[in-house]
Amino acid sequence: MPETTLDYHNDSLSLSVIEALADATDTDPVELEPLYHVVDPEALDQLFQGNTPATARVQFSYGDHTVEVRSDGTILVDGTVHERP
């Protein structure tokens, strides 16, 4: 049976959100307030796996920023699209 390796940078939407916030705020990701203070990262990852409706999205505030995550993997911070790696 082949092993499946989880690629956290491509498979974890919550890590992509952190990277987008770091980029938007010009801050090192480790210096950011933990994402779990505003949203459950595991729930966010699970919400957008599998058969998520094409129109699904989650929007939340992170400090002074508005973050929107769409079912196609698009992440917007304050209306600016951040590409996933």
UniProtKB/TrEMBL annotation:
Pfam family, one: HalOD1
Ranges where the Halobacterial output domain occurs: 10-78
Name of the molecule in the record: Halobacterial output domain-containing protein
